[in-house]
Amino acid sequence: SGNYYNQGEIRKKELEQSCCVLGIPASDVTVIDHRDLPDDPAVEWDTQLLATLVLKHIEAKNVDLVVTFDAGGVSGHANHISLYSAVRYNVCKLLWVLPWTGCRVLVLESVNLFRKYISFLDVLISCLLPRDALFILTEEETEQAKRAMRCHRSQLLWFRQLYLLFSRYLVVNSLRLL
What we know:
Belongs to the PIGL family. There is one protein chain. Helices cover 45% and strands 11% of the residues. It has helices at 8-21, 47-61, 78-96, 113-116, 122-128, 139-150, 158-166, and strands at residues 65-69, 104-108, 133-136, 172-177. It has a four-stranded mixed beta sheet, covered by helices on one side. Helix 1 runs antiparallel to helix 6 and helix 2 packs across helix 3 (78-96). The longest helix is centred in the middle third of the chain and has 19 residues, at 78-96. It is globular and about 40 Å long. The protein starts with 7 loop residues before the first helix and ends with a strand.
């Protein structure tokens, strides 16, 4: 629920505001508040527990595409990496237990620090490297993404301000199928 520093309620509201900016209705936002899944960048979550929760959501919402972090979690955040592990665990279940779901999984590529902060210049590099999907945002989409990020006021520390200015993830995202 984003309760790191006891800001769970604030972060829930910020998430809903951010999703609204992106055109995602609040009714499509699900926040999981589970005592065994603390919001903490140093805590690895239980893979099977999280996999079960994710799979229930996929089934309940009839999800056909999941986009998640890769094994690097983009920023090395343990919770992000745990989410990747849980989704990866579920891919085996989806293929063997629920093959008719047709749910596909794309993972966002983690890049090195240099590439992470060269903004639009990374488009050239990303176009040359292998990937399954490449999303290049228009200037309007980049501004929309920045407006959505600014909704997360409680998390906009100095380094995230730099992220808003220089991150390639606000311009280009390369993904691969899991």
